[in-house]
Write a structure and sequence with these properties.
The protein has about 260 residues and is an alpha/beta fold. It contains ten helices and seven strands. The chain has helices spanning about 30-35, 65-75, 90-100, 120-140, 140-145, 150-155, 170-180, 185-190, 220-230, 250-260; strands at about 5-10, 15-20, 40-45, 85-90, 105-110, 205-210, 235.
Length: about 260
């Protein structure tokens, strides 16, 4: 299914596709893109229905299989075959699904979704419903609220371990990204009723990395991910939250580069 996808492309070398989480946008990778681009041909994209990518046509079935199809078709349209891929949260699940299908050279999942049990699923759903609702309600106030480190901490600490480190403009755009995502609710519903499976089929290098202080997808999910994908290597992202690129850009850059060097 051909869809319009907004993206940026920087650097040279083997292709590396970066995929954000639900409610996010390609700019979540801003702290690490330049460092990655010194070694890779980096394509950071907005998943359809998020960021500046329009929502897919009416009637498109939401969920990981459909999004995977769309993203694979997208990079094939750029003439790219089997890139490395790294993703965060929903993007991590997409990366692992791509590895399961064998359409990538390697996959790195940063706190990947898809490994919850029922109580965690309920918690994640409630957390994201609250996040979306507050983002929409607080969108007009975001430029003022994000001016101070306290405002950024109060608003974003459930997702980012050190939100005070974010630039105010980036924090505002993050709130607006959650508020404005046009495919948020259908996607959230699809993610909450499914789980990742088929990890034993993967035969490309996989890295599972988890934020030590992830308050959305709790770190206790990491052992399940490793049990599902026995061949995966594991990295603990110390002092990082759910969206780790803002917390420790150097560690996230190293994790992605190491994961895409073993292929």
């Amino acid at each position: 299914m051909a869809v319009d996808i907004n993206y940026v492309r920087r650097g040279s070398g083997e292709p590396l596709v970066l995929i954000h989480g639900i409610g996010s946008r390609w700019q979540m990778w801003s702290p690490v893109i330049d460092a990655l681009a010194q070694h890779r041909d980096v394509i950071a994209l907005d998943v359809p229905g998020f960021g500046a990518s329009p929502r897919p046509p009416q009637g498109t079935k939401p969920g990981i299989p459909t999004m995977t199809d769309m993203l694979v078709e997208f990079w094939q349209s750029l003439g790219i075959d089997r890139p490395h891929v790294a993703g965060n949260s929903m993007g991590g699940w997409l990366a692992l699904e791509m590895a399961r299908r064998g359409v990538v050279r390697s996959a790195t999942g940063l706190s990947p979704a898809g490994f919850h049990v029922a109580p965690e699923r309920a918690f994640e759903l409630a957390s994201l419903v609250v996040t979306r609702t507050l983002a929409k309600a607080g969108r007009p106030l975001a430029p003022k609220a994000m001016r101070t480190p306290f405002g950024r901490k109060l608003t974003l600490s459930s997702l980012i371990g050190k939100p005070a480190q974010m630039q105010p403009d980036e924090a505002v755009l993050s709130v607006q990204g959650v508020a404005d995502a046009t495919w948020f609710w259908p996607t959230l519903g699809a993610l909450c009723i499914d789980r990742f499976s088929g990890g034993e089929e993967i035969n490309v290098p996989v890295t599972i990395a988890w934020g030590e202080h992830d308050h959305l997808l709790l770190p206790r999910q990491a052992p399940r991910a490793l049990a599902e994908i026995p061949s995966a290597r594991y990295v603990l992202l110390r002092d990082c939250g759910h969206v780790p690129a803002w917390d420790n850009p150097e560690l996230v850059t190293k994790t992605i580069l190491d994961g895409s060097t073993t292929a």
